[in-house]
Design a protein that fits this description.
The complex is a heterodimer of chains A (about 475) and B (about 350). Chain A has about 475 residues and is mainly alpha-helical. Chain A is built from 15 helices and eight strands. The longest helix of chain A has about 40 residues. Chain A starts with a strand and ends in a 24-residue tail after the last helix. With about 350 residues, chain B is an all-alpha fold. In chain B, α6 crosses α7. The longest helix of chain B has about 35 residues. The chains are: A mainly alpha (about 475), B mainly alpha (about 350). Chain A: It comes from Deinococcus aetherius.
Chain lengths: ~475, ~350
C-alpha cells in the first residue's frame, strides 16, 4: 500500500512537516520579540523604581508565559520529526544539519527554560538585578535559538562548507557554514519579523486599555515601546526581505522566478514585475497577468535593466545539469504566498508609521480611528510569517537540500497510514493548543493589571516556607 | 573500549539520556502520584509546586539527547525514530499535553478546568514513563533493520514480554524516584509527606520486583545484556542493591539517602542499557551486517571534534545554572491552609 486516499507517504510527510513547523512558528517569533519588549519594560521599571511599571512587566510576563509553554512543547516535535519522517534526510545531512540543532539546545533552550523559570517563579526570591538579568538572558536565548535554527535551514537552501563522501554530506568548513551569507540575511528577516509579532500584540493590548482609560500613564509606556519595536521590525523585515530576494536570484533562481511567476526570461530591455497573475504549472505560463515595467529589474538587481531567468529556461538548465525530471515548484501557492507576505509587510510599516506620526503630534493616548484595525493587527505578522514559510519552503521544491537531495529521496519508509494517523493526532492537539492559547491570551489581556498583579493564581504557585525555616 | 571520538560521543549520548531520565523521571513520578497523594486543591497545588520551576529545563535534556544522536550518529537517529515512529509520536503528544497541563492548569479558576488538566497530566506523565522503557528495551533487543537502516517490521513487534517489562520497570522506577523526590521537597509536617513515604515504600517493592523481572528476562534471552562479559552482572546487581538501600533509607528516615538511591538506580539502569548496547547502537535482528554500530553510524571526526569543543564549553555552564536554579527554589513546599478563592475543595 503506497497511497492512502490518493496521498503518498511523501505527501503526508510533507504535510506533517509543514504542520509542525507552521504551528511551532505561531509561538516562536512571538517569544523572540516579546522577551525583548518585556526586558525593556523591566529595565524601565528597574531604573524608575515605579511599582506600576513593575506590574506592567508582570502583566506582559504572564502573557509571555502562556505562550512560551506552547512554544517549548511544539519545539520538541520539531526536533524529533527529522528522524521520524525524514530518515533519508537525516542520513544524508546529519553530519552538518545536526550540529546547529545541538548548538541551539546547548546555547539557547537550557538558557531560556531555566532562566524563564527563575524570572517567573523567583520574583520574590531573587534580588531585583538578578531578576532583570534573567529576563535579558531569556531574550538573548530566544535570539540565539533563532540564529541556529535559521542557520540550519539556510544550509538546506544554500549548502556551503561541505563535501560529499560516500553519498553523504560531510562538514569541511564550519566557519563557512556559520557565516553563510544566506543565513545572515534570513536571520535579520526572521528576527525583525519576530519583533513585529510581539510588537503588534503589545500594541493591541495597550491600545485596548488606553481606549478604556485603564492606567493610562502605564500603558502609554508599553504602547511606546511596542510602537518603536513595530517600526524597527517592519523596516527590518522589508529591508532584509529585499536583500534576500536579490540573493535568491543568484542562489535559487527557480524560487525567485516562482515568487514572480516569471515563466519566460524577459526579452525586452528590462524586467517587469507582475502585480496579479494566475500561474498554471500545467500550461507553463500565466493564464492572466498584470505587469508593471522596470519594477522587476529594480527589485531583483537595484537597477532598471537587469533580467532574471524564467521558469521554463531554468527547467531546461536543470534537466541538463541534474538529469530528467520536473524541477518546477508549484507556482501559484508560492506566488500568492509571497504577495500576501509582502502586502502585509507594507501594511505593518504603514500602521506603525501612522502611529509614530500621531505620537509626534502628541495624540498617543488616543488610539484614534484606526483603533479597530489595531486590534486585529496582531494577526498580520502571523499571517505574514505563515505566507513567508509557505513561499520559501514550497519555492525550493523539489529539493530538500538545494541541488543535492530531493525531497522524494529524503522521506522515511513509513506506510501512509502511520503518517496519516499521527498527522491527525497532531492536528487535533495543535488546534486545541491554538484555541487554548488564544482564549487564555485574550482573557488575561482583557483582565489587565491588578494591584498587585495577582489576577489569577498565574502559575502552579508553590507556597514556600519563610527563609531560614527548618527544612 | 578504545577512547576514540565516536566512543566518547556514545558515552556522552548515554550520559545525556541518564541525566534526562534522572531529572524528568521524578517529574513523571510526581505527575503520576498526584491523583493518589493529593485529596484537595491545596495538596494538588503543593505537588505541582514541587516541580513547577524545574520541569521545563529538565525536559530540555531529551531535546539535547535527540540532537546529540542526530549530530553524532545520524544513521542511528533516522533508523531508531523511524522504526519506533508510533511510540515516539505518542511520547511527543504526551510531552505536549504534560507541559501545557503544568502551565495552564491554574490559569482558570474553575473546578472542571482543573480536573481536565489533572486527568491530562496523569495520562501524559504515565505514557512516556512507560514508553521510554519500551523504547530502551527495543534498542537493546534489536530491531528488524535492513539495508541503510530501513525498518522492515511492524509496530506491534515493538511489544513483547521483554519490552513491556522494560516499560513497567521504567514506570515503577520513575514513580519511586518521584516519591523520594517529594520526600525532599515537601514540608515534613504535612500529611502529603506521610503519604509520599508510604508511596515510596510501596513503589520501592514494585520497582524491585519489576526491575529484577526485566533483568531476568533479559538474561534468559540470548544476545541481551551479555556484551560485557563478567561485568554484565555488575550494573543490574548494583541497581537491585540500590533498591534495597531505598528501603533502608526510608526506614531510617534518611530522605536525602533515599533520593540518592533511587537516582542511582535510574543511573545504573540506563548505564546497563547503553553498556550492553556497545559497540552496537542499534542491533538488527535481520543479520549482523545490518547492525548499526558506534563506528558505522557516527559522524565524521571533524563534526565530532566541533561538537566536543562546544559541549565542553557549554555543558558545565548548563549544569551550573541548573544547579543554581534548584538552589534558589530549595525550600520545602508546604500545603496552603487558607481556602483557595473561588476554587472548590476538590474532594
Amino acid at each position: 500500500m503506497n497511497e492512502l486516499f490518493g496521498f503518498s507517504t511523501l505527501d503526508l510527510s510533507r504535510f506533517q512537516f509543514a504542520t509542525t513547523s507552521i504551528f511551532h512558528y505561531f509561538f516562536v517569533p512571538f517569544t523572540v520579540g516579546f522577551a525583548l519588549i518585556i526586558a525593556i519594560l523591566q529595565t524601565l521599571a528597574y531604573r524608575s523604581h515605579d511599582p506600576k511599571l513593575e506590574n506592567l512587566t508582570r502583566f506582559f510576563g504572564h502573557l509571555f508565559f502562556i505562550n512560551f509553554a506552547v512554544g517549548v512543547v511544539t519545539g520538541i516535535v520539531q526536533e524529533f520529526q527529522f528522524g521520524m519522517n525524514w530518515q533519508g534526510f537525516s542520513n544524508f545531512v546529519g553530519n552538518i544539519f545536526g550540529v546547529p540543532l545541538a548548538l541551539e539546545v546547548l546555547m539557547a533552550f537550557f538558557l531560556e527554560s531555566t532562566f524563564l523559570g527563575l524570572w517567573w517563579f523567583g520574583k520574590d526570591r531573587l534580588p531585583a538585578w538578578a531578576s532583570l538579568a534573567s529576563i535579558w538572558i531569556v531574550a538573548l536565548g530566544t535570539t540565539v535559538s533563532a540564529f541556529w535554527i535559521i542557520l540550519a535551514n539556510a544550509w538546506m537552501q544554500h549548502p556551503v562548507g561541505y563535501a560529499i563522501k560516500n553519498g553523504r554530506a560531510v562538514m569541511t568548513d564550519a566557519w563557512a557554514i556559520v557565516t553563510n551569507p544566506k543565513a545572515l540575511e534570513w536571520f535579520a528577516h526572521l528576527w525583525s519579523g519576530g519583533l513585529t509579532v510581539a510588537a503588534f500584540f503589545v500594541l493591541a493590548v495597550s491600545a485596548y486599555h488606553l481606549r478604556r482609560r485603564h492606567n493610562v500613564p502605564t500603558f502609554r509606556v508599553s504602547f511606546q515601546v511596542a510602537l518603536l519595536t513595530a517600526l524597527i521590525g517592519s523596516l527590518g523585515v522589508i529591508a532584509a526581505g529585499h536583500v534576500q530576494g536579490q540573493s535568491a536570484v543568484r542562489d535559487q533562481p527557480m524560487k525567485y522566478a516562482a515568487f514572480s511567476a516569471l515563466w519566460d526570461t524577459p526579452t525586452g530591455a528590462q524586467m517587469p514585475e507582475s502585480l496579479v497573475a494566475l500561474p498554471s504549472n500545467g500550461a507553463h505560463t500565466n493564464r492572466f497577468e498584470v505587469t508593471v515595467p522596470y519594477v522587476g529589474s529594480f527589485l531583483a538587481f537595484n537597477n532598471f535593466s537587469g533580467k532574471a531567468k524564467g521558469l521554463n529556461d531554468l527547467q531546461k538548465e536543470y534537466v541538463a545539469k541534474y538529469g530528467p525530471g520536473n524541477y518546477l515548484p508549484w507556482v501559484w501557492p508560492v506566488y500568492w504566498a509571497f504577495r500576501v507576505m509582502v502586502g502585509l509587510g507594507g501594511l505593518m510599516l504603514l500602521v506603525s508609521a501612522y502611529y509614530t506620526w500621531r505620537w509626534r503630534r502628541g495624540q498617543l493616548d488616543d488610539p484614534g480611528r484606526l483603533y479597530p484595525l489595531l486590534l486585529v493587527m496582531p494577526l498580520a505578522p502571523h499571517l505574514a510569517n505563515f505566507s513567508g514559510w509557505v513561499a520559501t519552503e514550497m519555492g525550493r521544491q523539489p529539493w530538500i537540500v538545494q541541488g543535492l537531495l530531493r525531497t522524494a529521496d529524503a522521506v522515511s519508509g513509513l506506510t501512509p497510514r502511520t503518517v496519516l494517523v499521527s498527522l491527525a493526532a497532531f492536528w487535533v492537539v495543535y488546534l486545541t493548543l491554538i484555541g487554548l492559547d488564544v482564549f487564555l491570551l485574550t482573557r488575561t489581556a482583557r483582565a489587565g493589571m491588578h494591584e498587585p498583579e495577582v489576577e489569577t493564581p498565574s502559575v502552579p504557585a508553590p507556597n514556600y516556607l519563610p527563609e531560614g525555616a527548618a527544612p | 573500549m578504545t577512547a576514540d571520538l565516536p566512543t566518547v560521543w556514545f558515552g556522552l549520548t548515554a550520559l545525556t539520556f541518564t541525566i534526562y531520565f534522572f531529572l524528568d523521571g521524578f517529574d513523571f513520578g510526581v505527575g503520576i502520584l498526584q491523583p493518589f497523594l493529593a485529596r484537595n486543591e491545596a495538596q494538588r497545588r503543593a505537588l505541582i509546586g514541587t516541580v513547577g520551576p524545574f520541569w521545563a529545563a529538565n525536559e530540555v535534556w531529551v531535546i539535547l539527547a535527540a540532537s546529540v544522536i542526530f549530530a553524532a550518529f545520524p544513521l542511528w537517529y533516522g533508523a531508531l525514530l523511524t522504526a519506533l515512529y508510533p511510540l515516539f509520536a505518542l511520547i511527543l503528544l504526551a510531552l505536549i499535553g504534560r507541559g501545557v497541563a503544568f502551565e495552564y492548569r491554574s490559569e482558570v479558576d474553575h473546578v472542571r478546568w482543573r480536573l481536565f488538566w489533572d486527568v491530562t497530566s496523569f495520562v501524559t506523565n504515565l505514557l512516556p514513563a512507560f514508553l521510554w522503557g519500551v523504547i530502551m528495551s527495543n534498542m537493546v533487543r534489536g530491531l528488524p533493520l535492513g539495508v541503510g537502516g530501513r525498518f522492515q517490521g511492524h509496530v506491534l513487534g515493538a511489544f513483547d514480554l521483554f519490552t513491556v517489562l522494560g516499560g513497567l520497570a521504567t514506570l515503577s522506577l520513575f514513580v519511586l524516584h518521584g516519591a523520594t523526590y517529594l520526600l525532599l521537597r515537601l514540608h515534613r509536617d504535612g500529611t502529603l509527606y506521610l503519604r509520599a513515604r508510604r508511596a515510596a515504600l510501596l513503589w520501592g517493592a514494585a520497582a524491585t520486583v519489576l526491575v529484577l523481572a526485566f533483568v531476568y528476562v533479559g538474561f534468559v534471552r540470548s544476545g541481551v545484556f551479555n556484551s560485557l562479559g563478567l561485568s554484565q552482572w555488575l550494573f543490574p546487581a548494583a541497581a537491585a542493591l540500590n533498591l534495597g538501600l531505598v528501603w533502608l533509607a526510608l526506614t531510617l528516615r534518611r530522605d536525602g539517602l533515599a533520593f540518592a538511591a533511587t537516582g542511582l538506580t535510574v543511573v545504573f539502569s540506563t548505564a546497563t542499557i547503553f553498556l550492553s548496547l556497545y559497540p552496537s547502537v542499534l542491533p538488527s535482528t535481520l543479520g549482523e551486517a545490518y547492525t548499526l554500530t558506534v563506528r558505522n553510524s557516527a559522524s565524521e571526526p571533524y563534526t565530532l571534534r566541533l561538537l566536543s569543543w562546544v559541549s565542553l564549553t557549554f555543558l558545565p555552564l548548563i549544569v551550573g545554572y541548573q544547579a543554581w536554579n534548584y538552589y534558589v527554589f530549595r525550600q520545602r513546599v508546604q500545603e496552603r491552609d487558607q481556602a483557595i478563592p473561588g476554587g472548590g475543595s476538590g474532594d
